[in-house]
Batch of 4 targets.
Target 1
Amino acid sequence: MQGLDDSGTWAPTPWGRTLPRSCVGTDPQRYLDHLQLRCKLAAVDQLEQLFFAPVAALFSQHFGLPLDLLSSSDGSQLPGWALREMASGGRIPEHCEQDWNPLNLIENGTLCDVALEPAFQLSFLYGVRSATQGGELQISADETCVPLSPGELLLFNAGCRRHQVLPTSGPELRVVLGGFLRLNRSHTRLHCYV
């Protein structure tokens, strides 16, 4: 991605790379340190304005609630979205987010103290680039496959619905912007994080 090519700003994953590092299964200080690298990139500010600000406004309007970003206990603002590139041959195995909540630094209270509604753990994905072949999101209960073309936005209950990303192939990488959309326990605010 243009303006984001410095490999030191990306975090490797088993299926590709992500910017910023995910809060799932990582060391808290390593996560916060990685956020500092992300904040220095002008391209991140552009993506924030072009993508996340309109999506956040859409969510707020649709649900009729304000959307607030979370802050860590040290006052650092936590990002509401991540850019994810899936390498050719990459896939994400079947899971639901509740499987990973014990290792999630937001959900387990390691990074911040926020009471979230357990039944409302959504994922949002915005298609930036499609893989040459494959890369569809498969929602497992009914085996619905969603190709997620560039410019499409998908919101689904990833907390409860098992899902996977099917294997990719070819020279074009699957690239999405996305994160988690959560409702606070008092049902007065929405929060996005990665």
Target 2
Amino acid sequence: MLFGLALFVALAWSSHASLRELEAVTDARSRSRSGLLLAAEVMSALKDVETGQRGYVLTGDEHYLVPFETGTRSLDETFKALRRMLADRPQANLETLWTLIDRRVVLAESNIADRRAYAEEGSPWRQRLDEGRDTMDRIRARFAAIESMLRAEIEARDRSLEALRVRASIFNVLLPMSGVALILAAWSLLQRERRRRCSPRTPAWRTRSPSVLPSCSTRSARSRPSRTAWTAASRTSAGGSRARCMTSSGSSSPRSR
């Protein structure tokens, strides 16, 4: 019985631990997916910056500045969210990445300002186009490494989640079964104790816990007063009958004389 109770407690604790681990892995997987989405948003904002800047310096059309301004406005806030999401992953090397991003934005702003000031062929913005392209290539390589890292984390956590779900399913089956087994074992012990109490061969002094079940000896003790009273009444009746017989025989003796 004690072994079964210990087994039930161990299964309950293991099931609780599995659920907590499942929750932790699910939360970590969600954070990895959120980081992947934020990285894609930062990269999209950078593409808007590059596209707007390149379109403006090549054509001089102010309409190309709309995506540039939109990208620069959303870039800071989105990258801050990405930094918070990946704060526990130093391998992402976000500070170096932000240095490259900031450099790319500065180059884009300088190119736009020079395009407004110099439209001729030898203007400074044409000399900086290659530098901007190289910087953007380095940024893409950094983001590719971050995305690869996050996707690997998601795949690993997917495998962990599958294993935890299988283990939780096993515990969900074993825990109720062990509970039912404990209930049946307790019921069997109570029935055995009841039969032991009802057995006439069992002395009354061996009864250990009379408050658990009403024993047969208790019921017999309750019925003793009624049997004693019935025996006493029978003896009294028999005594009275003998007394009447003796009286009647005593009174008839003189007559026979």
Target 3
Amino acid sequence: MAQEAKELEARIEELREERSKFQEKVEGHLKEARTAAADELIEKAEQELQSELMNRLNAAVSNGNEELATKLLDGLKSYYSGKIKPGAKTDSSEPPSVSPAIAAKKSTSKPQEPKPQPPSQRPTAEKKAPPPPPSSSKPSGKIIERRTMLNDSLNEICRYEYSDGQLTKMIFLDSEGNPLRTHQMVYDKDGNLEKEIHVDQAGRTLQVLERETSKSGKIVKEIIKNADDELLNSVEFDYDNQGRLNKKEWFDAKAKRTKVWEYEYEKSNKDPLRIIWRDERNKPYGQVELKYDEKGNITKEISKDRTGDVIRSINYHYFYG
């Protein structure tokens, strides 16, 4: 028994040495792989991350998941503010230890405490001022820019482009003026908006929104597909006897209803006073109260949960050309 114990102990020691050598070899290979990593691979990972975030954000907005949409929007803000900036270069000769796509995932491990630096060596991040609104040499009275304020801070900028009086493009920028995505409008021969193509800053299609209209030109259905022409969800529109939007119902790819928006009006007013959210079982989920300017454009959205507590407040500022 004593001899067997010694042999077992010796074997364990051999295995430990083998494991140590193997670990050193693996670390060596990883270091070589990181050093040899090509910029295009890193860029591809960043593009995949950006596309995935945008797809998830669009799906969350379409499905009325306010909480998830807000979190994803915050993630995109971080992405474009420089925390995970596409194609970012470093002055260090050392290559990145992980791909940006992996680094973007929320870590469950405890972060290391940064070493304190003297005041003179501490980096100071200067946030760029928002770009000025565009000017128009031929005023038309149309909206040329909308600025979205979330919690009193500039959250997003949307610029409008027109051709022959029709809206052709909506360009979305972050608070510093960096491009996020673009919505391209496609019209039928009668001038009805037939399709919206949503693309990212690199021109890649994120999703396509197709519209069906009635003879009077009202939207009766929207069909949302991904870049591969696969159905994501659809939205059906219902109107009251005054021609005002009465209800919107969302359905998933399997035609199962996922949520409902009901619009409430004040007497004969054409602009809705509030929107009531209902879940797939038609139970109240929350509401959005709306305020308008003299031109009928929404200036404020106050979202409340089913108990009446405010979830968030969004303000819109418009610039006209």
Target 4
Amino acid sequence: MWLSRLLVPRIVVLFGAALAAQAEVSAPVEPLPAAVDLRAEIDRLGIGPRSQGVRPTCSVFTVVSTLELALARVRGEGLRLSPEFANRAKNLATGRVHDGGFFHDILAGLAREGIVRENAMPYAKRFDPEAKAAVDDETLAAEATALRALIGKRLHVVWIKPWSEGTRGLSETQFEAVRRTLANGLAVATGMAHSRTLVGYRDDKKVLGGGVFLTLDSALGRYGEVSYEFVRTELCDVFTFEVLPEPKPAAKKLSAREG
């Protein structure tokens, strides 16, 4: 099962769990670069911007694009993933038939159902709860199961700011965590009325708040920008994926004769 973890303060929870154990996290010591830009790497991997069209699926695209970059770190190559499958998985997990949704519901769907390649279940212009995949059910299930296992083994969801009713904006510690995540080469999913993926930043004293974040924006179907001030004041929930080391192979057990 995937784990969800807050960066600061650090909280470890299972998907949907209400109970959490809190611990102190030491402040980062390494200075951050004045600018980080992941766009060239994202394009090289073949996982650049794409359009959600008229559907209200910005949060689905944001989750999937954030996952794509983290998964590329694990696999050593890009893999274009299916927002359509992620949307369906979310509905199966929640028991509701709805187009789009919240980060936590989409992540719950991925944790339960896995994910597949885009060309196994292409994105449709219009929402169809009965939409069929481009491959047979057995192939679809096998691929979803394999990717679910890989993601579960090598990636953790890290909540920088979990959703909480009536709260908006980031603390300075959370803001720092966003920039540090980007400096480490990973994307950051940001949610509000419209969700976007952060893929870089640039300090600029002439801009409100002291700089801009680079975004991957499915409503625009291209890269964009938002100010530091916007991120500090408007966001409702923020997460990223932490890449875990590959597990060490199990030690070989010696037989009685070998021992």
